[in-house]
Amino acid sequence: MKNILGREIPEVIEGYGKVKPFEGAFANCGIAEKKSVKVKSVIPGDNKVLANIEEALDKVELKDGMTISFHHHLRNGDYVLNMVMEAIAKKGIKDITIAASSIFPIHEPLVEYMKKGIVTGIYANYMSGPVAEAISKGALKRPAVMMTHGGRPRAIESGDLHIDVAFVAAPTADTYGNLNGTEGKSACGALGYAESDAEYADKVVAITDNLVPYPASPIQITQIFVDYVVEVDSIGNPAGIVSGTTRITKDPVGLKIAKMATEVIEASGLIKDGLSFQTGAGGTSLAVAAELKEIMKAKGVVGSFAAGGVTGYIVDMFEEGLFRAIFDVQCFDLQAAESFKKNPAHMAMSSSMYGNPHNKGAVVNNLDVMILGATEIDTNFNVNVTTGSDGVIMGGSGGHSDTAAGSKLAIIVTNLVKARLPIIKDRVTTVTTPGESIDVLVTERGIAVNPRRTDLIEKLKETNLPVYTIEELKAIAEKMTGKPEAIEVSDEIVAVVEYRDGTVIDVVKKALE
Amino acid sequence: MKNILGREIPEVIEGYGKVKPFEGAFANCGIAEKKSVKVKSVIPGDNKVLANIEEALDKVELKDGMTISFHHHLRNGDYVLNMVMEAIAKKGIKDITIAASSIFPIHEPLVEYMKKGIVTGIYANYMSGPVAEAISKGALKRPAVMMTHGGRPRAIESGDLHIDVAFVAAPTADTYGNLNGTEGKSACGALGYAESDAEYADKVVAITDNLVPYPASPIQITQIFVDYVVEVDSIGNPAGIVSGTTRITKDPVGLKIAKMATEVIEASGLIKDGLSFQTGAGGTSLAVAAELKEIMKAKGVVGSFAAGGVTGYIVDMFEEGLFRAIFDVQCFDLQAAESFKKNPAHMAMSSSMYGNPHNKGAVVNNLDVMILGATEIDTNFNVNVTTGSDGVIMGGSGGHSDTAAGSKLAIIVTNLVKARLPIIKDRVTTVTTPGESIDVLVTERGIAVNPRRTDLIEKLKETNLPVYTIEELKAIAEKMTGKPEAIEVSDEIVAVVEYRDGTVIDVVKKALE
Predict the structure, then answer these.
(1) Which A residues 489-508 touch B at CB under 8 Å?
(2) A227 touching chain B per CB within 8 A
(3) Which domains does chain A carry?
(4) Cβ pair B393, B386 in contact under 8 A
(5) What confidence tens digit (pLDDT) does each residue in A140-176 have?
(6) Assembly ipTM
């Protein structure tokens, strides 16, 4: 069958099950059910602190076929997923499904576990590095499931993704399972991606390298959700956790794109008191923040909130009074983590509060402006940030689809040509975010507005910005690069791309070697 | 049938249903289930702010036979319950069950609604004043259900108590339903009793007199739980909310009892680093805190946490460094509310985290010392704080049973004789808290230790404290007062007293006029 975007998808995918086809960004909202949860009562005198991960595996009765979850606040510095998997492999347990909010190059040991059948399923919102490449080459028994940052808590809370055991990497834990990310040598700030896991998994094990006396303070995940606590030497490499390396681009092309994107925002009329804003941590996206900052200051505008994975640039704007609040699901750098710790209005949000479409209103619903990247975009404004143009998985939605759906003005900023390939295609290799959610594409050579946004097209006519149709922009690019060849892939499905509501927006086929 | 305490209880109570008899404080722990919840998705552009309570009743489709809930942080200053009920009565809706965490004299209008069949059921953890008296006289169609502060969230989360619509009195709300109790003219501090309601009710309506632009900061109850927001002129009378009137007793008898109770704590060996402590806001209980404070200072002891409904006395101890943290479910006075706002280690806890026995460990489980009052206590140490000796409801467990069950040392402080009646009985009028949870009774004439605590009996032998058996203390009292007459009640059950695990520990019979 074909879904509403014309993507060819089987009705049933082996190892995944029956497909609910994508039907539009808000087609599947309405009444949603949060699943029932079983909890083992802890009574006075019970002890939660265990000697090591092996004991925890025994206590939670981990066995073949189970699904275990991890969160990615420690990013490419995370030791916890690998430590737990090593212990599982040693015990001879197999057929494990890993539900990680994201997978990074540091998780390379998974490749061997996949080949040996120890790991047979993977859920992730984003994956890069050896694991993503191995999946693309068919190393995983069942198709990987790619979700969004808001779709993952939706799936967990609804029961679509049942977690047997959640392992929560905790920069600080007390002896009764109260956790925070603000204290300890592995401090990472917010813990937003771990909250649904803690609330809905059958069992929850906190793994910490900073075990403190009861009670920890502050508390981000409370004792009522945590079954056991294990202390280890180190949960992560600080250099990989909060890198401090988010930087505004110095590339003149990127700066030009950022300037144009900011002019689009200004023309939209959204730069006024109450403005809400989010941007990714890419160099061009950050440059938009820098441009916006100057305009807000010049106009004396006080925004309502900035959200996201948060960087120091956003913290600077907040601390200069340009936003009243920050909603933070994850801190991207040390400055963000510091601010999260000290500024009361720099507030935590769970990934469910951030982007779950089946809540009573996620934070993304209140976003005015969202700055996003793209690997590819097609003439229907569908965006791919999941696979490269070679068809190999190198990313995933993360919050891309969530913020695009929620925001009033979702702007894609990208070079028109990358690595000698035009980014505008007739058909993207993989659809991550549907075109209906994207309002504007800004490239160094010109701007294209989604035809649905007739209001914005009118407003941009009053500016000197170089506005084209997306087909025109595509032609400009292809004049430089020639028409790219279509990539060849096999028929084997290696990954299912779920939209935030749990429908299937696309599939990823096995890449040819 | 009789439950394990020998209380005569029917197997089925009309208007309540099948009785699960109380079987012991921790007999019903194990695997507990949190119920599934249905949520109406809110999509971008949806508006949550409604014009008035009437519109909210329409939106949530309030109708005959529904259960609606309220929390009691505004205490005897609360306007919200009465406002909502007035609107319901005007619409001609009837047969409403009210699940309020507590009911105060200000809620007197309920008496008329009960008589007219508009209100036919009441759940509360505590009730005093005209409503309690009317229930005792049989004015309510179905028996009232008395719960504990930890038992109420257990019942809500398990589905035993299904709430159709929760009305949350919010000192501050933003336009998307983020709530806090720290800002606004009706600021009350913590909102711990409202959290389970917000998380598990079918619909949630916030009622505020301080509607602020999005987002509110801080956020205690988030937008993902709130369907609608209504702004009204005033949610409560500040004089009744945080009264600032909690005071240490000046009565020499009370001070003597407090001094002896503190000597018991000292003899128990619990006054050492890491000590955790809770006390009610009664004058004698607060005097124990004052005594304990001096000992902690003299010994250089740093406690782990104080918990509870929090008073300025506890805040003083915390701010002097005698406790590392405070867990706060409700602020009892202005000083507590101020501290809750400014001190990061003065932390909120939901009533579920406070006392729910079917969680992965409530805060009460970690209490060392708990100071409690009693209206009556029997020779098996069963305590009544639900009814007066005349059988009329004048209180209820609140956190009495929860903290007694969780703490290592639960001390009852009370005068041996009150209003010329001895407080020690052969059989208390109503059992609120089972004797197995009570460790010591301290009166001005002597101390009785629960025979189960042989360790403590040994320790007290090394002191000069006047230790008796509880039968001996009873005899001392009766020598002064004579043996009191048994009260007469009818056979009609007007209230069912649930233990924190949902079993029935006792019933209250209709008082004779």
Answers:
(1) none
(2) yes
(3) 48-241 (3.40.1080.10), 252-487 (3.40.1080.10)
(4) yes
(5) 999 999 999 999 999 999 999 999 999 999 999 999 9
(6) 0.97
